Design the sequence.
């Protein structure tokens, strides 16, 4: 492998040099959590834009078979700084996309220390390793959970960090850590606040974790159970929670755009605060509307089971996505039906077996 890394660059015409290198696959990004649901799509988007990837993943929730055969998968924990530094040096890493984290708001309410250890401690380890190895670019997975209960219909990036559950709080702390490290160590950071990610970019790439609404609904219908709606008395048009859903392949594409932009930043020169972007469709969809789409796509016509609100669930969170469109030229292309259809297609293959013509559920 050619040694292309930081410190070998002059300050002249670096943008075009790096862009040209990306186009021939000589810019390398470390993707933490690259065997995960979103990570596997991000790796493909980075490869598709001409970049080379290396993954660090402990496979705690990831799936090794999602990793493309030409991408090295280093099996390890992001808390292991010496391992991360060795990967950064050995693979001549130019930047990090950091996705490895725990992601369930409900679980975080029950075990906040796990979330602080994994999400905040994990990022501290990644950033420390970057400083030691001289890696100066990071794209950070954040979440719309940092907004808590937004005071406006469409929440923009200037809204205060006001998380209402430990998961969202850990993401807010991670953002602040990235901001401080940008100022102190000259790390160029882009923070992506994902809204509700759904769908699959291929049959083997669906979300195998059953935390989010669509996988929960698909599991329910394949078990012949009624999908639960947590909260039907929110101050929303139909009383159920409203969220902004984004197809995972649209989301993945943003990482390649963010990587390209960070590659044009000259290390240590003119560093700014991190760029922060909402990544969603900018459209609110209620839980009942999603479940109606699940019924339409799957043909399973089980009525929703109305349940009490869950702790830490805000009524409505929908992103203002005008900044990312303006600055990165990005806009989501897939709609809710495409999200549910692709998720269902993947779910059927991953979670069900078909003896004869009859589909039967298997354990997720
Ligand atoms: N899925 C969503 O709707 C959503 C929304 C907002 C933000 N996010 C964020 O996106 C990121 C990825 O989420 P996902 O949905 O792909 O989850 P996921 O669980 O599928 O992926 C996480 C990956 O990180 C790996 N990992 C976890 N802890 C690790 C550790 N200590 N060391 C090494 N690897 C580790 C897991 O094995 C897995 O492959 C997370 O940071 C999550 O908070 C997700």
Sequence:
């Amino acid at each position: 492998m050619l040694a292309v890394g930081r410190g070998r660059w002059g300050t002249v015409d670096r943008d075009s040099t790096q862009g040209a290198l990306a186009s021939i696959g000589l810019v390398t990004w470390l993707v933490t959590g690259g065997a995960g649901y979103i990570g596997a799509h991000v790796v493909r988007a980075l490869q598709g834009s001409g970049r080379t990837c290396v993954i660090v993943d402990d496979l705690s929730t990831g799936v090794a078979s999602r990793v493309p055969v030409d991408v090295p998968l280093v099996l390890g924990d992001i808390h292991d700084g010496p391992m991360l530094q060795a990967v950064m040096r050995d693979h001549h890493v130019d930047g990090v996309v950091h996705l490895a984290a725990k992601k369930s708001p409900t679980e975080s309410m029950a075990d906040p220390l796990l979330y602080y250890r994994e999400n905040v401690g994990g990022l501290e380890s990644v950033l420390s390793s970057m400083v030691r190895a001289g890696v100066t670019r990071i794209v950070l997975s954040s979440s719309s959970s940092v907004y808590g209960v937004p005071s406006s219909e469409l929440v923009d990036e200037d809204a205060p960090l006001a998380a209402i559950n430990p998961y969202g709080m850990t993401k807010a702390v991670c953002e602040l850590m990235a901001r401080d490290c940008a100022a102190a160590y000259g790390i160029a950071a882009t923070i992506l606040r994902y809204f509700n990610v759904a769908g699959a970019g291929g049959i083997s790439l669906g979300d195998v974790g059953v935390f989010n609404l669509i996988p929960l609904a698909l599991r329910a219908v394949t078990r012949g159970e009624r999908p639960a709606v947590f909260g039907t008395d929110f101050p929303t048009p139909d009383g159920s929670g409203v969220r902004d859903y984004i197809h995972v392949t649209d989301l993945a594409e943003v990482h390649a755009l963010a990587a390209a932009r960070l590659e044009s930043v000259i290390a240590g020169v003119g560093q700014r605060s991190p760029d922060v972007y909402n990544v969603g469709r900018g459209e609110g969809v209620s839980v009942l509307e999603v479940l109606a789409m699940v019924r339409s796509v799957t043909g399973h016509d089980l009525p929703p089971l109305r349940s009490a609100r869950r702790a830490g669930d805000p009524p409505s969170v929908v992103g203002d996505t005008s900044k990312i469109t303006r600055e990165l030229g990005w806009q989501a292309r897939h709609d809710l039906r495409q999200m549910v259809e692709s998720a269902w297609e993947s779910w059927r293959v991953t979670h069900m077996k078909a003896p004869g013509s009859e589909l039967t559920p298997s354990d997720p």
